[in-house]
Amino acid sequence: MRIEKMVLCFVVCLFIGKVNAQDSLQVSSPDGKLSYRFILNADGKIAYEVQYKQRPIILPSGLGLTKAQYAGNNWNSQFSITKTEKKSTNSVWKPVYGERSEIADKYNELVVALETKNRAGITMQIIVRAYNEGVAFKYFFPENRKYQIADIGQEETNFIFPSNSKAFFTKNAQGAYEEKALTGWTSGAELPLTLHLSNGLWACIAQADQSNFPRMRLHTVATDQLQSRLFGELTETSPFGSPWRVVMVAEKPGALLENNFIIQNLNPPTPLTNTDWIKPGKVMREMTLSTVGAKKLIDFAVEQQIDYILFDAGWYGSEYEVASDATKVSPLKSLDLKEVIAYGKARGKGVLLYVNHRAMERQLDTILPLFKSWGVAGVKYGFVHTGSHRWTTWLYDAVKKAAHYGLILDIHDEFTPTGWSRTWPNLLTQEGVRGNEEFPDATHNTILPFTRFIAGAADYTYCFNEKRLLNTKCHQLALSIINYSPLQTLYWYGRPENYTNRDEIELWKYLPTTWEETKVLDGEPGTNVTIARRKGEEWFVGAITNNDARTITIPTDFLSKKKQYEVWVYTDAEGKVSKQVTNSKDIQTFSLVAKGGVALRFIPKK
Hints:
- The protein is built from 10 helices and 37 strands.
- Helix 6 links the parallel strand 26 and strand 27.
- 16% of the residues lie in helices and 38% in strands.
C-alpha cells in the first residue's frame, strides 16, 4: 500500500504579540535569505514587500479584495490589525510519485488578523508562509456566525518589480512564449509567470491549491507593476480562503524548477489510504478505433514496455455532438471494447478512454462507475472549461469522483495544475502546454522547463517520426527526460508499423515516467537546458539546444563515486539517432546541431 507518508513534523507557536511591534509583521525563510513584510499604511490600506538577501523582489505592493455587489463593503481599505501570530513547521513527506522521492515542507508562518471600520468583529486574515524556495500568501475568512457569506468580485493583489525586469509571457496555457517588459500588455499573463529581474535574480509568480476559486491572470497596470485579475465573481461560506499566491525566488533559473515542490506543499495531503492502484506509465494512442488495431497496438506495447493504450476522440461518436453517448461504443466503429480490455489485461496493459466535456457534463456520474465495471484503467477529460469559479469547482469534484472509482486521469487542453495531484494523486497529468502536436520550435522547448513545468506535470504528446516536426529525433528523446509527466504519451500520431527501426526508440523502452531525484544541471529559458533524473540506481540525462547549434558540457558529479557505469549515449547523426556505449564517468561534452539534443542513460555495473 502506497500512501503519502509524513516522516517528520515539528510545529512550534512562536509569537502572539502587540500589533504595533514591527517584527510581528515580518516573516523570514528558515535560511534567513527571503523575507516578507506586511504593511499597514496610515490610510488603512494594506500592502507587502518581498526581499532576497535584502535585495528587492517585490517592492511595496497593495493587497485587497472587492465585493461582488455591495459598494462600501470591500476588503481593500480602512483596515486595523487585531492580532498577529507566528509559527514554524519542519516536516518531510513522501509523495505517491513525483520528481523526487521525499519533499521537505519547512517554513515560517505569519497570520495577520484584520477588520475594517464598517465590519467590527468580522475578520479577514492574511496568511503568509516563508520557505527557502519562495513565499506564499492567501486571503482567508475564518468561520463567523454573524457574517457567513464571502462575496468576492475581484482581487487586487499587486506585484511591483524592480525597474526594467522582464517576464516570459504567454496569454494562454497552450500558447507560445515571448520575453516582454512589464508594460503595456494587451492581455493577461497565464501563470506560472517567470521573470528575470533587473538585479539579476529570477522569480516566478504561481498559484497553489486553486480548487475553489476563479483562476488568476496578471495584467500590467503601470510600468513594472502587475495586478491580479480573476475569471469572474464568487460567493462562498466561511471558513473560506483564496488559493496561495506564490513568489518563488532563485539565483539561477534552474533552481525554480528544482524547487517547484513548494506548489505541492501548499496543497492538502491526500485523504486516500490506498494508492496501490495509481500506476504511472507510458501511453500510446490507438489510431484505428478497431478491435484489430487495438490488439496490434497492445502487442506493440508489450514489446516496447508501454503501459497503457488510449482510445482518443471518436470511439463513442463525435465528441462535439450532444447526442453522442459515452456509455457505448459508436456503431460506426469495428471495436469490441470489452474484448480489447480483456486482451490488454491478460498482457498487463491498461486501457484509457477519452471523454469530451460535453458528455462529461451530462454523464459523469454514470460513466465513471460504468467504466470501472468494464475494467477501464483511467479517463482522459477533454476540452474542459477552465477559469471560472463554477468550472473550477466542477472539475475538482470530477477528479475526486474518479478517485472514488479507482480511475486515473489525464486532463487536456487549457487546464494548468496548481498542485491537486498531491491531494488526488489519481490525477497523473494534464496538458495546459503548447506540446508536440502543435509542432513548436526548439526555442519554445527550452523555455518550458523554466515556465510551465514549474506548475507541475504536462502531457506533451510526443510525435517521433512526424515529418512536421521542427526539431531532431534526439531532441525528442531528450525532451522525454526533461519534461516531467507521470503519464508520458509517446508516438502521438504514430502506429506500430511506423516504427520499423526499433533502435531509434530504444531509450523510450526503458524510460521511467516518475523519479526519485531531479537536478537541473544547466540552462536558461530560450537558449538550452540540461536535466538529470534518477530512478533507483539509474540516471537519465536530457539536454537540448534552441534553434542554434551549441556546444554543451554535462557534468557527472551527480553520479555515485563508488559505482562504475555503462553509459548509453544517443546523439543526432544525419537525421537519425546514433547510439554509443561507453564506461566513462568523465564530464561529457557534445556539439549539438541546431534544434538538436542528446540523451544519456547511466546504468550501474553489478
